[in-house]
Structures are given as structure tokens and as C-alpha cells.
Amino acid sequence: MKIHFAKLALVSAVLSISGLAVAADPIKIGVDGPFTGGSSSMGVSMRDGVRLATAEINKAGGVLGRQIVLVERDDEAKNERGVQIAQELISKEKVTAAVGYINTGVALASQRFFQEAKIPVMNNVATGSIVTKQFPDQPENYIFRNAAHDSIQAPMIVEEAIARRGFKKVAILADSTNYGQLGRQDLETALTAKGIKPVAVEKFNIKDVDMTAQLLKAKEAGAEAVLTYGIGPELAQIANGMTKLGWKVPMIGSWTLSMANFIDNAGPGGEGARMPQTFIQQPDTAKRKAFIDAYLKTFKPKNNRIDSPVSAAQGYDSIYLLAAAIKQANSTDGPKIREALENLTAKVEGVVTTYDKPFTKDDHEAITANIPVFGEVKDSRVAFAYAEDMKKNANVRVKDAKAKVAAPAAAPAAAKK
């Protein structure tokens, strides 16, 4: 009898230990972005923001008593690489959720696999307006975002150029990727709403180093400002091209004009460029100061300047949003996390904003038009373009349903970069 009870006690102990081991299994979150190449300024900053938030959460005990483990992959800003990574994260790594996606085309090509697997994706940088509307025919949507989509940014750019600064003749220069061409469409839609037709609409490719032909057409058409949709290296070539031509008109474009590889490569030619920003590296609240201080201390960026502050801040916030949903769901089950994200009961204090019920079943966009402010390149850094925006930025900003700008209903057939 004693032996029998001893065996039962041993089995019970083993089961108890096994149960504890299972309970302590880490929560895997995939991190996908371009950590090399022309988009790496955004990708690395995003990844570092994600790492910082994860370290803070783990230090505080993790989520559901479990540590978060990041499974990081470099998609090189290539659609086919993004697809491979998505399949690996789902089938091999068994991730609970994924964050990232810098390039709109990579997001559109890759996130369909997460949708099929019912695993939530938090897009924290890609801004193509259709990213969260890719699967309108499906009853549940697993694609979320905490970045300012282009249907918010494009009207802001046009308002800045036409209404605020009084330009009547504008040219559009956009890269040939999905990001650039979808952004161009949004710009043209916003211009049409103002009764304005661009005097020139020009395209360029990734890695182009000579924008003379496009700029000459814009100049000859009498453009008073150039509206841009592209990423840092090519945007710098636009600024440098204007300098070579001795033709200097304002550059007003999407948030990517804040990238370090635009600012540094454009030099004096980039000064004065303006762009919408969800976050500017200025410690104007306690939360932002703590984030900036921790980021600079941990990653030690050159000149104490975050390469892509927007990417870093949104990456950081994306992890806290996911952690809040996992905690509320009390589960790592994909459908339960999705449902929790759509019905978050607790406010999430982020760096970009305080997220108060950021998502609903029909609205997976955490950022609304009242949140971004205008930045301007000044002395090789991004600063506030307007004093009133400094005050706005210092206040707690939350999602405002009245400020919502609807994104298109479906994705285009092609999902190019």
C-alpha cells in the first residue's frame, strides 16, 4: 500500500512539474521587417522598438505569467521572402501573433497566410490604405494596424500644400512599388476633392539615382511644390536632383521623408521637407521621455537620433496592444486574441497615443486623422512644423471616431512591393 501511494505521489509530482513547464512556455511573436537594404532604416527602428517593449513586459513578469519570445526575420523588402517567412512563422515556429511589415506590397503578399491560419497580425509601419481591408469577403479579419494609413496621410499632404501654403500647381513623384502607386492614387483623389489636377505625375524605380527627367517635366510644367510617395534613398535623389538643377521648391510627402537615409543623403537639399508624423522624437510627455531615453541608452543610435522615430514608436506600441489583448483573452488562441483586440476594455498607454478602444470588429485601424502632426526637416532632424502641433502632441491623443477616414474596401489584384 505504501509503495502504491508512493507511486501515486511520484506521478502527481511529475504531472505537477509538467503542468508548470507547459504553463511557463514562452509566447512566441513573429517580427517581420526589412533589416537590410533601403528600407532597413524603418525596419531596424521598428524591430528595436519591439525589442524594447518586450524587454519591459518580460521584466514585469510577462503576459499570463509567461515570457514573450521574439522570432525575428529579415524580409529584405521582398514579397517572395515575406511569403516564405510567413509560412515559416506559422508552420515551424508556431507563433501566437506577428508584428511588423514595413512595405505595403510585402504585407499584402504575406499576411494572407496569417489570415488563413487565424493568427493576428499587427501592421505597425505599412501604410497602404487597403492593408486591413484585404479580405472583405471573410467573416473575421485578423489584420490590424497601428500606423497612419495613406487615406489619412494623402489628404493631410494636400491640405498642407493647397490650403495651408497656397500652392496651385503641384507635381507628384511616386515610386513604382505598390506603396508608391497606391499613395499616388490617394494623392490624386485628395487633389480632386480640392478641384486641383497635378501638373505632372512621374514615376521612378527603387535604386534609381537620377531623377533629372522627372524633375524637368515637373519644372517645365510650372510646379510650385513636389508631392512625394517613396522611401528615403530615392527621396534623397529627388532633393539632390533639384539641387543640381538649381530648382528648389518645397517637398511635401508621406511620413517616409523623416527617414534618416533621406535626411542624411539629401543634406541641405532635404531641409524644409514636410511630412505627417505620428511621433516626433521630442520628450514632451513622461511616456515619450521614458521611451526615448530607454531607446537611446539601449541602442545608442548615431547622434542620439532614432533613424525612424515613427517606426520605433509604432513598433513599441504594437507589442503593448498585443499583450493587452492576450491578457484580456487569457489565452494565446488566435480567434480569442482577435476578439479581445476588437473589444479592448483597458486603455493602453502608448508612445504614439493612449489607445482607448482602438479597434472594433469593422474597424482595425488604431490611428485616426486627429493623431498625426506635421514634421519638418530642420538641422538634420525632424521637428514640429507648427507650434500648435507641439501643444497637440503634448496632450493625450486618443482615437476619435469622428476623425476616421475610410480605407478602400478591397486590395488590388496585384500585391507587388
Notable traits:
417 residues; alpha/beta; Rossmann fold; 2 domains; 5-stranded parallel beta sheet; 4-stranded parallel beta sheet; 14 strands; 15% strand
What features would you describe in this structure?
The protein has 13 helices and 14 strands. By secondary structure, it is of the alpha/beta class. A hairpin with a 2-residue loop joins strand 13 and strand 14. Helix 2 packs parallel to helix 11, helix 5 packs across helix 6 and helix 11 crosses helix 12. It is globular, with a radius of gyration of 23 Å.
Secondary structure layout:
Elements: H1 2-23, E1 27-33, H2 40-59, E2 68-74, H3 79-91, E3 97-100, H4 104-117, E4 121-123, E5 143-145, H5 150-164, E6 170-175, H6 178-193, E7 200-204, H7 212-220, E8 225-229, H8 232-245, E9 251-253, H9 260-266, E10 274-277, H10 286-299, H11 309-329, H12 334-342, E11 348-349, E12 354-355, E13 373-378, E14 381-384, H13 387-394
Parallel strand pairs: 1-2, 1-3, 3-4, 4-5, 6-7, 6-8, 8-9
Antiparallel strand pairs: 10-13, 11-12, 13-14
Helix pairs in contact: 2-11, 3-4, 5-6, 8-9, 11-12
